[in-house]
Design brief:
single chain
Length: 62
């Protein structure tokens, strides 16, 4: 049987919270044997939250 594919983009938000764990991370772990998983950090999603422009520029381009 062909393994299913799971593509996940995770928004960087700092510290992991209980909500992050219960809502996302636990599900990734629970499904890792069922799906071929590709998980990435969606860096550009950081621009949808208030940021210090100079600090964000350094993070994105260096």
């Amino acid at each position: 049987m062909k393994q299913k594919l799971m593509l996940i983009g995770v928004r960087p938000s700092g510290s992991i919270t209980l909500g992050n764990y219960l809502g996302a991370i636990k599900n990734f772990v629970d499904r890792q044997d069922t799906y071929k998983s590709y998980i990435f950090i969606a860096d550009l999603h950081a621009i949808t939250s208030p940021q210090n422009p100079q600090k964000l520029s350094i993070c994105l381009w260096n």
